[in-house]
Amino acid sequence: MGAYIFRRLLLIIPTLLGIMLINFALVQFVPGGPIEQVIANMQGQGDVTAGFSGAGNEGGPNQTEGLGGAAGGGEKYLGARGLPPEFIAQLEKEFGLDKPPLERFLFMMGNYLRFDFGESYFRSEQVVDLIIDRLPVSISLGLWSTLLAYIISIPLGIRKAVKDGTRFDTWTSGAIIVAYAIPGFLFAILLLVLFAGGSYWQIFPFKGLVSEGWEEFGWFHKIYDYLWHITLPVLAMSISGFASLTLLTKNSFLDEIKKQYVTTARAKGLSESKVLYGHVFRNAMLIVIAGFPAVFISSFFGGSLIIEKVFTLDGLGLLGFEAAVARDYPLVFGTLFIFGLIGLLVGILSDLMYVFVDPRIDFEKREG
């Protein structure tokens, strides 16, 4: 197993390099780069330096040496007609766009290998600091929604497998289909209207992860306040997530129940609960439990943008979206690098979970 893990760790380097290279190449053809953003802000405010916080500041955008490209066309930059060439040249130098794309990419990757992600173009903060500031929201949403999905799905899936074809199985399947069909953002708005003072009851807060002055609360009050704030967002994220997991659990149990070893165990006089939880459970839950890291990461990365927007939560999903809209390339590529690295490491962790749940699995023999 050690050799397999070592090979997987080595594969992270070319895989991550390929991810960054493809996205960097795509950005070179996307119109509306950071200089266009500066020009747009400048024209809207009537100030040639408006919206450009990095120009001339020590440790500004030139730390990341121009991660993105610019759009081509009759004008080099959209909206730049009439502006002094010296001003455009200064912007290119500050953003690092005066260098060839290959040189910019190599410089960027050299910094990233040292975990130096530079400074955001328009926020005047280090990329790492911005990510760390928003990690609590994304971890809270991802972790609690995943745990809630497992807590509901596993017992429900087992019950549906045992009661397969009965009325209970039929009506719960209908409920699951309805829950799966409800968009998360629509359910989030419904929760706000019903329980956050929209039109009915003011039971839960409608924004934020904690209340003001949270640092001064006692530890019990801190836990209560945190859970009070996170309840509605987690419910909104979990409404459709448990559907596929429930059906996966049910089908896994049904497959195992039909196997010969279950018939043999029943013939020996073992009770149904002993057969179900002593023999079937471990084999049936292999794929469900081992997939926990991947489910958490998918919720952590991509499942919270709309929920964060609805509940006014500053998480990584909203941060990444705003960075992409603003063409804040240090933030875009910094988060992409970190998320890509975490995703690849979680893939290895998922394999280790398979071995932990069932030691009979040997990935080295499979590769051989």
TrEMBL record:
Q: Where are the transmembrane segments?
A: 9-30, 137-158, 170-196, 226-249, 284-307, 331-357
Query: Which GO biological-process labels does this protein carry?
Result: microcin transport; transmembrane transport
Question: tRNA processing: is it a keyword of this entry?
Answer: no
Q: Report if keyword Manganese is assigned.
A: no
Per the UniProt record, one Pfam family is: BPD_transp_1
Q: Output the CDD domains linked to this UniProt entry.
A: TM_PBP2
- The ABC transmembrane type-1 domain covers 135-354
What GO CC annotations are associated with the protein? plasma membrane
InterPro entries for this protein: MetI-like, MetI-like_sf
**According to the UniProt record, where is the region Disordered?**
50-72
Q: What PROSITE patterns does the database record attribute to this sequence?
A: ABC_TM1 (PS50928)
The record's keywords, sorted A to Z, are:
Cell inner membrane, Cell membrane, Membrane, Transmembrane, Transmembrane helix, Transport
Membrane topology value:
Multi-pass membrane protein
* UniProt-annotated location(s): Cell inner membrane; Cell membrane
What family does this chain come from, according to its entry? Belongs to the binding-protein-dependent transport system permease family.
What is this protein's record name?
Microcin C ABC transporter permease YejB
Organism (species): Rhodalgimonas zhirmunskyi
